[in-house]
Amino acid sequence: MNFKKVMGGIALFFVLQGVEAQPFSPVDYVNPLIGTQSKYELSNGNTYPAIAMPWGMNFWTPQTGNMGDGWVYTYTADKIKGFKQTHQPSPWNNDYGQFSIMPTTGEPVFDQEKRASWFSHKAEIVKPYFYSVYLADYDVTTELTPTERGAAFRFTFPRTEQANIVIDAFDKGSYIKVIPGENKIIGYNTRNSGGVPDNFKNYFVIVFDRAFDFKSAVKSGAINSNLLELEDDHAGAIVGFKNLKRGEEVIARVASSFISFEQAELNLKEVKGKTFDEIAEAGKAKWNEVLGRVEVKDSDADRLKTFYSCLYRSTLFPRDFSEIDAQGNRIHYSPYNGKVLPGEMFTDTGFWDTFRSLFPMLNLLYPEMNDRMQAGLVNAYKESGFLPEWASPGHRESMIGNNSAAVVADAFITGRKGYDANLLWEAVQHGANQSHPKISATGRFGYKVYNQLGYIPTDQNINQNVARTLEYSYNDWSIYQFGKALGRPASEIEVYAKRAVNYKHLFDAETKLMRGKKSDGTFITPFAPSAWSKEYTEGNAWHWSFCVFHDPQGLIDLMGGKQAFNAMLDTVFVIPSYEGMKSRSMIHEMREMQVMNMGQYAHGNQPIQHMPYLYNYAAEPWKSQYWVRKIMDNLYLPTPDGYCGDEDNGQTSAWYVFSALGFYPVAPGSGEYVLGSPQFESVKLNLQNGNVVEIDAKNQYKNNVYVNQVKVDGKIYTKNFFRYKDLMKGAKIQFDMSEKPNKNRGIKDDDAPYSFSKMKL
Q1: What are the helix (H) ranges across 79-219?
Q2: Does the model's pTM come out above 0.90?
Q3: Nearest-5° angle of CA 709, CA 710, CA 715?
């Protein structure tokens, strides 16, 4: 099959049209361009089209931005400068392990601006496993298809006297060597944005299917046909082919390694001996296998596109950083100590984001992957002395909290296996009582004063003190849950149970919000709840005051009971978005909240994403149903501006995946999912253990957002949560949807989900 002839005509889910001509192919719904209409000032996702395998080591993307620009591809751009191997988790963290390939015709040119070509989305095909675009300035069609550590390119040229392929190894230190006798180019790049040891290199190898008629190395922009090997700040190469006929193709097979050139050659086996179309077909099959864990049936094609695009984003990160050696063993270059070591390694994820729903989604749908990821965390601890909090590829100075504890605890509690859980117990205790000597985001910054006072005060030169206190409190509960599940003695774990209620120290009874407090125990004044002040992380008191994931009942009690608690939740959506906008210089998270017109609710940032589900704890679950559906319907679209803030390595996508199913993990580590409002008519979860969860929603219409009744395996179910262990056995869940709320369902005390306060009574 020739993908360039047929990809544009793929039909979506033929069964919906009554034509049972194709098997279910969920990858055909995926639009990798969702979120690419973004910029520094306003994020609609801040994504790029990741042409990649699920959790693949290497991604590829068309490059519209300049070398070093975190906004590597923007939907509004009209020129492509190359096709880039990338490991970028977000524009804010930028990239590493990067180089680009670009076809041209005519006189060889290397400069990124001069070689750039106009293109149109109308002549662009974008699939997770296949990308094609017409480069108008050269009359060249470029196609690429990836494997985990490699890729194949197919360049279709016009009739031309000189066809060229530019290899740009990028600046900040790179090497190139042209090997004409093997139709090969090798090189390495060292450009990175931090988080790497001193010996970091990304080695690459490119093999063409024909001999070079022209060859040259490029040294800092200067093309030299007499030079075939060089090391420079900015190295590159250009190879050429003479007198091609129209429609003539050039195939390039590419692979890279963080270990060595020899390992890059081994990784090249992923694309050796296979045609371009065979690689693309295998890629499509792999994506359908992964996405097919969830089978959705629905009459709204746009919702299906949104769902499977979000599921695609949720299965990209964290990336597999391991490679397979000549003996078939899994090994990795350590981004922590620079050594080549045996075993697993995963990276490019920030637990501040992804502990919330991305990792719980893995435990539900892809547990075999999180088994491996936990083994990778064991290795990260061995190699650096800490668990990572934001890894890209090693420890990065980004965000706050000690949420590796939540990731580790939820994994073990949901049955992850095949790794040294006792070593991770050592790791979480160490991380809770230490701060990394160089990276304040790793371990616990301010742990001494937190352990002493039970909170981080405002007068100790530790910014984001309220946010840190709240996260550490939840993290301590996570450690307690992990230790309890491991069977650790009470004398060892009770300290974490006591710290789990430290959030209470910052509750201000006057405002019913979490407020900064000095070392002497007095609250700071003045206090403006809507101000995006330094006590909070990318938010304000309205966002952070509900970050008591593990103990909503404790928060309900502090606020004066269920009625008062629900009134505070209601208030979030009522206070005008412009309140607090002048409290600091504008950041994109503020603008994104403002333009969404949902009051102080800022779904584009993580701290408040669980908040709509909290009505389930206070006997008004229908309000959760209303707001969750409104968020899904209004803030998620299958378009280039389809997100309402940073997508953040699968977290914002995984929120939608869970919510569309009808439930969400408010407190990872509790073993429960809190009910919302399912968006689809019918869903089947094909669990890894062979069991199936069937979710049907009767009377599922756009305005029927309320849950009138729930049945599980044919029996009336009144609780506002499902348990992980019950779903793992397989289940038939039936929601009966209604246009009006059922205010008698889910209102009893024992209908409420888990809260730590209730367990400690």
Answers
A1: 112-115
A2: yes
A3: 115
